[in-house]
TrEMBL record:
Entries under Gene3D superfamilies matching the protein: 2-methylcitrate dehydratase PrpD
Residues in MmgE/PrpD N-terminal domain copies: 17-256
Domain of life, source organism: Bacteria
Organism, as annotated: Zwartia hollandica
Name of this protein: MmgE/PrpD family protein
Alphabetized GO MF terms: lyase activity
Boundaries of every MmgE/PrpD C-terminal domain copy: 283-452
Family in the record: Belongs to the PrpD family.
Length: 469
């Protein structure tokens, strides 16, 4: 029997109604200054990744397809002179931000929050000619809702085969759009109910390195705008979007009974989940970071590839399906995207080179025989001491040919809530990524506009982002 912790009968108010009330009453001044500053850094990080993505084949193919589907419009594509209609711009910008798997993660919700809510906030706020402060508020709202809705499942969506970034991101983007459009409480409830029917995201791409995942956040924004706009016009949506008999959790967790509905609204407006969003220091699935950083430390001890006999990586049980299986494919990734979800390839790279950069997951690097040789002798085991999902932790154990055992544990992944990247770390990451697409002058202009967003307008920011020269 499904455990209905925090279900509606006790209060008589549906979860969608509670979220609607919060959104209706939310003002820019309700958000603490430290959260607003953190939000701008998350935005900056995401825009840098979007700029870097232009150098990859997936972005060119996505742009060709979306351009063919486009119906005209003035919404921008980050780092491009292209103009698209509102929803297609959100789809494209979501692909750019998420395409390198270098974007931030809310650990407890196991969800990339910025990658869907930011493109939505940018496009809708610019079209509505909202202030930068309003765009920022809508973005924070989307992150708060999505992080909590993801947390309810306690990692369960991944176990069933759903990708919460796309699935849950739709609800966050619905709230972003609704706030910028000025929905009332009843319209918000309808919009969330409608989002239930358009939210999606499958993990099947893990089996063949397909590009599906890259489009999930942008599609969440596309769908969220659709749901919010229908709700604004009085198109009726189901009230029990989350806790209903066929609501989000009952339908997408396949009978699991360990989810906690109370987390959907717990401390909403008091504790800011945005402050728990982790910025990635490495361009790969967050589940692999502990292994990579542990391997880098082993390399720093002087261990070299030709000394290694066997490698074992301890990982949380919940991430095995994502980064360790199927084993044959993980040991020899067919493309860069598959490599980003491969413990054997990434740990092998770190042990060989003492680093992991975007260049190390680009197509030419995938055929490096020395990396593949290390991947071939890499095995995984379930980590008995894991604290997932609070931390994406792990351990690397290397057996050397002379019989020595070298092990390094990453008990708290770099960039996590309790080990965050500094503001300067994030700015440096942004600059490195932006340099792949724009001049240093344009990079600096974007940086200044984002970090001073509350003193400008959404349209001014969009105009700055939407050009190269």
């Amino acid at each position: 029997m499904t455990k209905q912790i925090g279900s509606t009968p006790a209060t008589g108010r549906a979860i969608s109604e509670q979220i609607a009330t919060f959104a209706t009453n939310l003002k820019s001044t309700d958000i603490p200054p430290a959260i607003r500053e953190r939000a701008k850094l998350l935005m900056l990080d995401a825009f840098g990744i979007a700029l870097a993505s232009h150098g990859y084949d997936f972005s060119k193919r996505a742009m060709a397809a979306i351009d063919e589907l486009n119906s005209g419009g003035e919404s921008i594509v980050v780092g491009s002179d292209k103009r698209l209609d509102l929803r297609n711009s959100i789809l494209m910008n979501g692909i750019l931000i998420h395409g390198l798997d270098y974007d931030d993660t809310h650990a407890q919700g196991v969800i990339h929050t910025t990658t869907s809510t930011l493109p939505t906030a940018l496009a809708v706020a610019a079209k509505q000619n909202k202030s930068g402060a309003d765009m920022l508020t809508a973005f924070v709202l989307g992150v708060e809702v999505a992080a909590r809705l993801g947390s309810v499942a306690k990692g369960g969506f991944h176990q069933i085969g759903f990708h919460p970034t796309g699935l849950i991101g739709t609800f966050g983007c619905t709230m972003v759009t609704g706030w910028l459009m000025g929905l009332n409480a009843a319209q918000y409830v309808d919009a969330q109910g409608l989002a239930l029917s358009v939210a999606s995201g499958s993990l099947e791409f893990l089996n063949d390195g397909a590009w599906n995942k890259r489009m999930h956040p942008g599609w969440a924004g596309y769908s969220g705008v659709t749901a919010a706009t229908l709700g604004r016009h009085g198109y009726t949506g189901t009230r029990l979007a989350y806790e209903g008999r066929f609501g989000l959790y009952a339908s997408h967790l396949a009978g699991r009974d360990d989810y906690d509905l109370s987390m959907a609204t717990q401390d909403l407006g008091k504790v800011w989940e945005l402050d728990r969003v982790s910025v990635k220091p490495l361009p790969a699935c967050h589940f692999t970071h502990a292994g990579v950083d542990a391997a880098v430390r082993i390399y720093a001890q002087g261990v070299r590839a030709d000394q290694i006999k066997r490698i074992e990586v301890l990982v949380p049980e919940e991430v095995v399906k994502t980064v360790c299986e199927p084993e044959a494919a993980k040991r020899k990734p067919a493309n860069s995207y598959e490599a980003q979800f491969s413990i054997p390839y990434l740990v092998g790279t770190a042990l060989l080179k003492g680093r992991l950069t975007l260049d190390d997951i680009d197509e030419p690097a995938l055929s490096d025989p020395k990396v593949l040789a290390l991947a071939a002798i890499t095995e995984y085991s379930v980590d008995p001491d894991s604290r997932f999902p609070k931390f994406f932790d792990g351990e690397v154990i290397v057996e050397l040919k002379d019989g020595r055992i070298i092990r390094e544990r990453e008990a708290m992944n770099r960039g996590s809530v309790d080990r965050p990247l500094t503001a300067q770390d994030i700015i440096t990451k942004y600059r490195d990524n932006a340099a792949r697409q724009v001049s240093s002058a344009r990079s600096l202009e974007i940086e200044e506009r984002v970090l001073n967003l509350e003193n400008g307008s959404a349209r001014d920011l969009a105009a700055c982002l939407g050009r190269i020269a």
